[in-house]
Amino acid sequence: MRIDPFGLERWFAEYEHEADIMLAESGIRSLDASRFDLDPGRLDYVIPTNGDPEFRASVGDRYGRSADEVLFTCGTQEANFLAFLSLLGDAESPDPDSTVGSGSHAVVVTPTYQALHAVPDAFGDVTRVELEPPEWELDAEAIADAARDDTAVIVVNNPNNPTGQYHDETAMRAAYDIAVDRDAYLLCDEVYRLLADDPQPPVASFGRHGISTTSLTKAYGLAGLRFGWIAGPEAVVERAWRWKDYTTISPSLFGQHVAKQALGRREPRILEENRELAATNRAIVADWIERHDLDWHDPVGVNGFVTVPDGFDDAEAFCRTVVETESVVLAPGGLFGFPNRFRIGFGLPTDELEEGLRRVSRAMEAASADRREADAERGA
Fold first, then answer.
1. CA–CA gap between residue 303 and residue 165 (Å, rounded)
2. What is the mean pLDDT of residues 353-364?
């Protein structure tokens, strides 16, 4: 099995540690640990290792699913990894009484987070369905055309990373119907869903063929917990648990302890604060984009996919200029297959965002002045 290097993580490794401001992060600002009770008692494994049954039942209620249809994981990354292993790592269906999910082919809607296409590509065969700018709308007909008899899963990230497009419920149900027609599953990474003012129903609530993955990282500002889950059919979840025995064994006891609080009485306030921050910062970035005559699709969540300013060869050249001259990290769009765009994350504290944007503007102005000077010298 071969897997491609994770381009975005390698970019972060190159620049994130030394940079002053991170405008490439895709989540909301992190909450302070002091808001929670931090004493889980003895630091043992979580028993049973798929997560506390009562807590899994509580999470399952959000999807109309039972405790046995939820598996707690180390973030959404592990949730997706285990789901792909379960669906594509074996030629047989996860459900011995059904053909659903049997096959080695995945249809993946892109651009998206690299793990959502690189991991299934390592296990099987992937056909990409590209969203098209400027609206990045989900095309159900294109998904249907890409699906095959051996398609095990259709993969969508909603709201989308990097574009911020929030595919509407009609489009998502159309994708689900295609999965049903093909005896496949629709897997949706919904890690940004609860940053929307009016979140759509999760895909796991659509029916037997729906799988939702998510975590407390992006919408809740709790990245350091590394706490997520899979919600879906019991046969898929059971197989994912078997694979989890060979990865992290159990979720973090500390993560589960704090997660119970974050999903309890504290949840409405946490989400209200984070949605307000996202809305405030989105408006600031939108104004900045307009002033610099750039373009994006007005996003849901805390990511936007912005056109590269004039005068730069591509997004990588632009982003390297910004980080090397102003110590601000942006994410080149080439990492998502679009070298003429860059991803900006605006979930950080507002004062840091505003300072970061000032620095990016300064880098753009300096580069423009350098070009004018070079042009003048050539004309002399």
1. 9
2. 98
